[in-house]
């Protein structure tokens, strides 16, 4: 199942392993296995098992 959002919402993902690396991009979709973000005009896929979304107001 793919969840699409018609939005220009930016999300930040944090590396689950190290916890020190983060990426921010325009949310495009979320599948069962990946977050898909638009970054620099291209779609980038990030494995859900390796990344977690940083919630609003959370220290980053």
Written overview of the protein:
The chain has 60 residues and is an all-beta fold. The protein has one domain. The protein has no helices and six strands. The chain has strands at 3-4, 10-15, 22-30, 34-39, 42-47, 51-53. Strands 1, 2, 3, 4, 5 and 6 form a six-stranded antiparallel beta sheet that branches. The chain is globular, with a radius of gyration of 11 Å. The mean pLDDT is 84.
Helix fraction bin: under 10%
Q: What's the Cα radius of gyration?
A: 11 Å
The number of helical elements comes to: 0
Low-confidence stretches: none
User: What's the SSE pattern?
Assistant: EEEEEE
What is the tally of beta strands?
6
Give me the secondary-structure category: mainly beta
Instruction: Please tell me what the overall shape is.
Output: globular
Whole-number tally of structural domains: 1
| Main β-sheet description | 6 strands, antiparallel
* Quaternary assembly: single chain
> Can you give the mean pLDDT?
84
Give the strand content: over 45%
Straight-line N-to-C gap: 29 Å
